[in-house]
């Protein structure tokens, strides 16, 4: 190639390079102004919405998590392959915590007060009051106790700091908005208590409520109906409710408190421990709580129920069974055994609600989040049907 041809080629390449740079510059400038225009329009719209008296209330503003985005918590937990409780706890909490934080004001605007119902620091409870006035001045509100779980050795009515204390306030707020006066007590935990201590704590919390009805009233909320009490519990908490109802020494058959308890909602308790061995990760805690693993199997909810005289069975409150669709297999099997036992003894199959898409942990973390609440809506409808 001649020097002249080489120079022409270089000039031609330089012209192409210059043209390309110029084109890219023009494109970036245009993109900048288009983006700015869009941001300005979006910001103006936001200011208009903020100034508007017609802006939807906070609980109707759906955060991105619940609009079908990849971080929808129900979509996240649906992808978990391992359904064991230990495997799903942390990722489930991580999935729901952002959504609960986004609903913080909505949850906390439900009135709440705390009281002590016993001697120790674990004998405290929170009362959540319906935030809207009753339809008529004569309407009284059901009292709903929620007893959380935690494997018998963990749990508290206000879990912090991961959700800024929004769990289990999310449960209290959800049912308070349905018109219930909701009470969530703490109770003693392993290793500081043995069976049936926590069930006795639940009993004492219920008795405290019936003896302190003046503390269950808040300005604008309905008066409590201390003769219509619902016990709702999850996991170990549901086991404590079952112990309270099925153990003759915890709540004697002639105790007037029994007549006030109209319904019990049992969310995936360990009904049947017959298959548990000491190789199970939770076996040591169960053995510590009941005394030995054999004692645990003898006094689990299923066997307490089996030993009840038929006269006592017939006086039990209405029972509702709830379980997550994605529970561990052993819990689903235990629920099936218990349900069949109730059918054999009473001739009736207890109602069961399956919380679709839920694992053992998510079932209550979802409440007040706007996601995965259908099972709780069905539960509220069931309570309405059987109690009214």
TrEMBL record:
Spans through the membrane: 16-35
A GO molecular-function annotation: hydrolase activity
Occurrences of domain BD-FAE-like (ranges): 134-325
Pfam families xrefs: BD-FAE (PF20434)
InterPro entries, per the entry: AB_hydrolase_fold, BD-FAE-like_dom, GDXG_lipolytic_enzyme
Keywords linked to the UniProt accession: Hydrolase, Membrane, Transmembrane, Transmembrane helix
Gene3D superfamilies listed in its UniProt record: alpha/beta hydrolase (3.40.50.1820)
PANTHER family the UniProt entry points to: AB HYDROLASE SUPERFAMILY PROTEIN C4A8.06C
Protein's name in the database: Alpha/beta-hydrolase
């Amino acid at each position: 190639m001649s020097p002249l041809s080489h120079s022409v080629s270089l000039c031609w390449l330089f012209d192409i390079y210059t043209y390309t740079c110029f084109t890219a510059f023009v494109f970036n400038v245009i993109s900048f102004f288009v983006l700015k225009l869009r941001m300005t329009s979006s910001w103006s719209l936001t200011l208009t919405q903020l100034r508007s008296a017609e802006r939807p209330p906070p609980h109707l503003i759906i955060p991105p998590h619940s609009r079908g985005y990849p971080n929808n918590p129900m979509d996240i937990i649906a992808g978990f392959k391992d359904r064991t409780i230990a495997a799903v706890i942390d990722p489930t909490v991580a999935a729901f915590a952002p959504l609960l934080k986004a609903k913080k004001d909505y949850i906390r605007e439900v009135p709440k007060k705390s009281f002590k119902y016993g001697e120790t620091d674990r004998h405290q409870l929170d009362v959540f009051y319906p935030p809207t006035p009753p339809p008529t001045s004569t309407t009284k509100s059901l009292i709903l106790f929620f007893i959380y779980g935690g494997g018998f050795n963990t749990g508290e009515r206000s879990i912090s700091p991961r959700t800024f204390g929004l769990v289990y306030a999310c449960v209290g707020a959800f049912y308070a908005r349905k018109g219930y006066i909701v009470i969530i007590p703490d109770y003693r935990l392993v290793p500081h208590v043995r069976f049936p201590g926590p069930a006795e704590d639940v009993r004492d919390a219920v008795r405290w409520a019936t003896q302190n009805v003046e503390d269950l009233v808040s300005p604008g909320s309905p008066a409590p109906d201390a003769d219509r009490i619902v016990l709702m519990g999850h996991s170990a908490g549901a086991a404590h409710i079952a112990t309270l109802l099925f153990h003759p020494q915890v709540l004697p058959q002639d105790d007037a408190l029994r007549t006030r308890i109209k319904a019990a909602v049992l969310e995936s308790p360990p009904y049947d421990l017959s298959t548990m061995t000491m190789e199970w990760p939770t076996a040591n805690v169960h053995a510590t709580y009941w005394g030995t693993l054999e004692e645990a199997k003898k006094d689990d909810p299923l066997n307490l129920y089996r030993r009840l005289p038929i006269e006592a069975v017939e006086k039990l409150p209405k029972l509702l069974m709830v379980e997550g669709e994605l529970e561990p297999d052993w819990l689903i099997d235990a629920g099936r055994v218990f349900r069949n036992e109730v059918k054999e003894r009473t001739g009736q199959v207890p109602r069961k609600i399956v919380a679709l898409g839920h694992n053992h942990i998510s079932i209550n973390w979802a409440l007040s989040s706007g996601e995965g609440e259908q099972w709780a809506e069905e539960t509220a409808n069931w309570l309405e049907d059987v109690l009214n």
